[in-house]
Amino acid sequence: MTAHDLPVIAAVDGSSHSWEALDWAALEAVRRSLPLLIVHVRPPARRTDEAVQLAQAQELLGRAERRISDLAPALPTSTLAPQDFPSAALVSLSRDASMVVVGSRGLGGFRSLLIGSNSLATASMAQCPVVVVHSGRTDEDEVGAAETFPDVAAGVAADESSEAVLE
Predict the structure, then answer these.
(1) Domain containing 120 — which CATH number?
(2) Separation of alpha carbons 19 and 154, rounded Å
């Protein structure tokens, strides 16, 4: 697999922000003619049976695949449900990705934050460009396939190392 064949990774957790990120990732994968890898990271939990957690992850990934088949039917799509801490799993997967796309916030408890801790950690440590999709929606808003993503901000270094991000 060459650098030009590496998938776009979309992280989903069931929040409205992750559905927005999934839509953005799918449209970007189509634009770049790249496959899409949909990832739901199952955090280690002592209180939840692993079989139940895996079944819930498979259900969520199935919903994500159906959403993408409606949005981009010809897009090559695969799924993955690793058990790890979310940012650690996404950073590890970023080594073999063209980009990682995450929502600005997930299902965590701090709703007033502009960016969630997993999104921030992934963006700061990943080995490829990371896109943090922020639509301004709340989890209570109606969710549908996004048609446009109006604003883009890029965090870059002052040298040539940022060319891939700007590209």
Answers:
(1) 3.40.50.620
(2) 21
Examine residue 29 and state whether it is found in any structural domain, yes or no.
yes
For residues 147 and 6, give the distance between their C-alpha atoms in angstroms, rounded to a whole number.
Answer: 25
Cα distance between residue 123 and residue 63, in whole Å: 25
Residue reference for tokens 């690793």: 82
Angstrom distances, CA of residue 125 to CA of 59, 89, 122: 29, 11, 5
Distance, in Å, from the CA atom of 138 to the CA atom of 105, rounded to the nearest integer, reads: 10
**pLDDT tens, position by position, 54-89:** 999 999 999 999 999 999 999 999 999 999 999 999
* pTM for the whole structure: 0.78
Are 9 and 39 a contacting pair, CB within 8 Å? yes
**What is the spatial distance between Cα 126 and Cα 28, in angstroms, rounded to a whole number?**
18
Task: Identify whether 1 is part of a domain.
Answer: no
Looking at the 3D structure of the chain, how many domains does it have?
Answer: 1
Of 159, 96, 86, the C-alpha closest to 123 is 86
56: number of CA atoms within 13 Å, CB side? 13
